[in-house]
Every structure is written in C-alpha cells, then in structure tokens.
Amino acid sequence: MQVLFDTNVLLDALLLREAFVADAVFLLEAVETGRIVGFVSATTVTDVHYLVKRQAKSAEAAMTAVTRLLALMEVCPVDREVLELAITLGLADFEDAMQVAGAAALGLDAIVTRDVDGFVDSSILVLSPDGLKKHLLQLGS
Question: 39: which strand partners?
Fold first, then answer.
C-alpha cells in the first residue's frame, strides 16, 4: 500500500504531540518495516522544517527532522501539472487539493491525515491515522 502522509501526522510523531503520537509512530514504523510505502509532498518537507525549527527553536533539530523524513519517505513532486490539477479539484483548502493531486499523479492508494473532513470529495481514499492503523492490524492478523 502506498500512502501519502499529511503534514499533521508527521508533526505528531516528530514533535511528540501527546494525544496523537502513538498512532503516528505506529504508522512511521509500518513504513520503516516495509508494510506500507510512505510518501510526502515536497511542500510538506518545507512545512516540517519551518514548524520544527519554530517549536524547537533549533535549526539543527529542523534539519534532523527533514533528514529523517527523506531517509524514510518517497517524495511527491509538486510541479505545474500537480498544481493545475489541484485547482480543478474544487476542495475548500488548496493545500489539501494539492496533496490529493500529488497522490493521484503518482497513483497512490491513500492519504493519511487527522483532517479527514478537509478531504471530502477526494478521488483518493482518505484515512485517519487510527483508521489506517486498524486496516494494517487487520491485514496482519
């Protein structure tokens, strides 16, 4: 299964957001072990750098987070084709539309996000971290 990780799920793991970290870490471990292939949007990488640097107040921590992501995940390019497709999707949030367009351009199976409602009418399956975790656990049993 090839899954695009939304920024919020990655930040849950990287910033140890208490209410969400367990599911996020489980999913990143699923990527590490090859149970799923993880993808991030190119723009997510810059968002992660910015947000980790701001919260940790450390450029080194931010670069470490980016390095970890790039070692673990494949990157969905954001080019003119993806941006133009995002415009046509009609989603309320352009960033979410761009994520859907990037995932669609690569033929990915799903997007994992805590903002499932932001992806209404997505042409790609959208799962919450808990939903993807349950799906993976069902496959493993």
Answer: 4, 74
Q: How many CA atoms lie within 13 A of 68 on its CB side?
A: 18
CATH of the domain at 69: 3.40.50.1010
Q: Is 75 helix (H, G, I), strand (E, B) or coil?
A: strand
Collapsing DSSP to helix, strand or coil, 51 comes out as helix
Number of domains comprising the chain: 1
Full domain range(s) for residue 88: 2-140
The torsion angles phi and psi of 74, rounded to 5 degrees, stand at -85, 160
Would you call 127 helix, strand, or coil by DSSP?
strand
Q: On the CB side of 73, how many CA atoms lie within 13 Å of its CA?
A: 24
Q: How far apart are the first and last CA of the chain?
A: 16
Read off the pTM.
0.93
Which tens digit of pLDDT belongs to each residue from 81-99?
Answer: 999 999 999 888 999 999 9
Is-contact 61 83, C-beta < 8 A?
A: no
Nearest to 11 by CA among 47, 41, 42: 47
- What are residue 76's DSSP bridge partners? 41
Contact 5, 41 (CB under 8 A): no
